[in-house]
Amino acid sequence: MAIFTTIEEISKYDGQEILLRGWLYNKRSSGKIHFLQIRDGSGFLQGVVVKNQVEEEVFKVCKELTQESSIEVIGIVQKDDRAKSGFELLVKDVKPLTIAEEGYPISLKEHGTDFLMDHRHLWMRTPKQNAILRIRDEINLAIRLFFHERGFILVEPPIITPSSCEGTTELFEIDYFGENAYLSQTGQLYAEAAAMAFGKVYSFGPTFRAEKSKTRKHLNEFWMVEPEMAFVDFEGNLKIQEEMIEYIVQKVLQNKQYELKVLDRDITKLESIKAPFARISYTDAVEMLKKADFEFEWGDDFGAPHETYIAEQFDKPVFITHFPTKMKAFYMQPDPNNSEVVLGADLIAPEGYGEIIGGSERIHDLDLILKKIQEENLPQELYEWYLDLRRYGSVPHSGFGLGLERTVAWICGIEHIRQTIPFARTLNRVYP
């Protein structure tokens, strides 16, 4: 009896007869041999069907198979160093489960990006897209393991909120039973509340930004992990961030070598990602840009060219710290030595991938947070619950937010963030 397994586990069965269930990704023939490219969701494998080694009906079935037909395949696993998986299958029997219709939209030729995004439900079946999303899954798991191993509690903040958490207007407004409500930009404020109950928490879920941006680094719906930690200061916050990034990258290197190979990723650039990371103040970064002939003034926000240039001066991610207070959200703690800047930092990824983390120490003083809310003309009544966190047992605390999709794009080495999420939501795309 053939042993049922998956392509991902095939190395365990060298020389043995196995059963696979999957789909025909592609095939080619040379008269007396069919070469079947089989995928089963866990990987891709070549099956070789030799005419004089199988029943006549089996060889005929293989000839009639169409792209993406679902099949059961029995064969002998053989080591093959030429294959990316390291193995191929000497096929003995093929049983069609369903024969796919002719004219599969994503034929094995060049297609435009808009066409591929219109067929995202099918595009993710291809090797590179499949590898990206499998690496996303590994990063997702690594994040959860990192925090679980360190005693953090997962909390789920609401997606529907009564106000902006960051005081911006880039919100998706909804009618909530006759009242105005918004899709959440961040779970941070709610995570802060949970941190005062549990000490160390993180939220991990979808967030929404109504930015009318078309850049390769922006989505209107994306996932963020947002830890919040009681009794952790600015320095402690940076330390946990760099430890997390090292942990994530090393987990991908450990468990997703095949997928990185499919993507032709230069893993030497990932192997060097070890804590600690360099730090540069916003003020020093401005001077660096000016010396490089960028037109940039203190108080300006960094764009992609600025972040890329700064990142190129380092071989690992780099923290940019102590941003101008006026640039950042109302809840960030001012530097006690210089109230013009905050105890906040962005972590910039190498290779032009830009900011992947933003974080800060939070204001824990009631009077100061009240002043900030008033200065930004925020409706205080909607933040009363948040102010209660300062009224009842306030402590110094810190947190940050990591964008999952930007992190996936960097680790995979792919150009556009829209490929890092199963179904992207961008300025002009809400289908499929």
CATH class of the largest domain: Alpha Beta
Cα distance spanning the termini: 42 Å
Q: What's the architecture of the largest domain in CATH terms?
A: 2-Layer Sandwich
The description of the largest β-sheet is: 8 strands, mixed
Uncertain regions: pLDDT < 50 for 5+ in a row? Answer: none
Give the tally of structural domains.
Answer: 2
Q: How much strand content do the residues show?
A: 25-35%
The CATH superfamily of the largest domain appears as: Bira Bifunctional Protein, Domain 2
Helix content: 25-40%
Secondary structure tally, helices:
13
The count of β-strands is 19
Strand order of the largest sheet: 7-11-12-19-18-17-14-13
In round numbers, the mean pLDDT is 96
Report on the structure:
The protein has 432 residues and is α+β, with helices and mostly antiparallel strands. The chain is 30% helix and 28% strand. The chain has 13 helices and 19 strands. The chain has an eight-stranded mixed beta sheet. Helix 4 crosses helix 6. The longest helix has 23 residues. The mean pLDDT is 96.
Search tags:
432 residues; alpha+beta; OB fold (Dihydrolipoamide Acetyltransferase, E2P); BirA Bifunctional Protein, domain 2; five-stranded mixed β-barrel
Strands, helices and their partners?
Layout: E1 3-4, E2 17-29, E3 33-39, E4 44-50, H1 56-64, E5 70-79, E6 87-98, H2 113-118, H3 120-123, H4 127-149, E7 153-154, E8 160-161, E9 173-176, E10 179-183, H5 188-198, E11 200-208, E12 221-230, H6 234-255, H7 257-262, H8 268-271, E13 278-281, H9 282-291, H10 304-312, E14 318-321, E15 334-335, E16 338-342, E17 344-349, E18 354-362, H11 366-375, H12 384-391, E19 397-403, H13 404-412
Parallel strand pairs: 1-2, 4-6, 7-11, 13-14
Antiparallel strand pairs: 2-3, 2-5, 3-4, 5-6, 8-10, 9-10, 11-12, 12-19, 14-17, 15-16, 17-18, 18-19
Helix pairs in contact: 4-6, 4-13
Protein name: Asparagine--tRNA ligase
Enzyme class: ligase
Family: Belongs to the class-II aminoacyl-tRNA synthetase family.
